[in-house]
């Protein structure tokens, strides 16, 4: 059989226009590593992979189970407010309720949770304007059906996601002896750095209210976007942490979002002490129409994050599958080797 170089033109002969150069790369003469897969190497790969995944999975599951959290469903405990919010004409009426509970000490992160709220619907996910959220085209948006009002006034921010923002206000109080102390909580620093500094920007203007001139708040909002945080001007507009966190939609109907973090000062320098606490809730977000539920979650965190065993279970399943595959291959190999030995004896 002729080798590849025999097909190349000799010196003095005309070289075809489409003939590749006589190089190691173009003539496929580069050295290559071709592993020889033996039964020992294949089984070692499967068993080592299985052992690694199972070990990591066990560590992640144990870590997730060590997280201490308390979850309070206040959908029924604030039933009067829930009935009030079902009538849209009562949007400007305030309604508050309180929930008492007992807590063990710990460094606390506060989350709000929603159940049966489908943020993954295609039309819902697409109803947003990333250009507007970057501070461009404030007066022009493409996020129907919440783009403009009937008189042509554009909404800022526009879209179904922004319009349905979670707007309950939750304050935490510590009942210490005969006094009631409000727990200091951090409003900022809760969103992803890339979201806060890259994906969301306020329009360039000397005054934030003038930057949104000619726009109107979404129909379900109680205040304009530049008034979301009246205590901190740097946490207003599109860079408001609560707004940024809400705009990162969930893939599941039941989810939780980070709401506040504990500020370690005075009585809470070492975390939340054990004792009796009270949630004061300004009830604004209706859930009865879509048969949803609302929760407040107080949770600690560990090196692997919060109380979510999914990643650990995924590692355990992968490791078990790799180990089981290794045993199956071992059984098949032993069976075929016995047959080969039997025929050689014949």
From TrEMBL:
GO terms for biological process: phospholipid translocation. It comes from the Eukaryota. Residues 1-20 are annotated as: Disordered. One of its GO terms (cellular component) is endoplasmic reticulum. It is found in: Membrane. Its main location: membrane. The chain crosses the membrane at residues 37-64, 313-336. Keywords: Glycoprotein, Membrane, Transmembrane, Transmembrane helix. Belongs to the CDC50/LEM3 family. This is Cell cycle control protein. It comes from Cyanistes caeruleus. The gene is LOC111939788.
